[in-house]
Amino acid sequence: YMSSPIWPRLYIYAGGSGGESTLTSYAAIIHDAFIGNGYGESSLSTLTDLTQGHNESAWATYFPIAYSWLVGI
Q: Each residue of 30-61: b (16+ CB within 10 Å) or e?
């Protein structure tokens, strides 16, 4: 009997405004690579926002959401 692996939770965010729209496609590629290699779907969250950049302002917006999801609150 082998139990299911316990996957650490991963949160991937990418913003796409300001000429950084190619970053959002990388988030999907990373997500798909993890899932394709057997990573637990419930342990992986990916968010892209084409209206936000890849900068401190966007991170300030999404960090509370990511943190709550990562620690399960």
A: ebeebeeeebeeeebbbbbbeebbbeeebeee
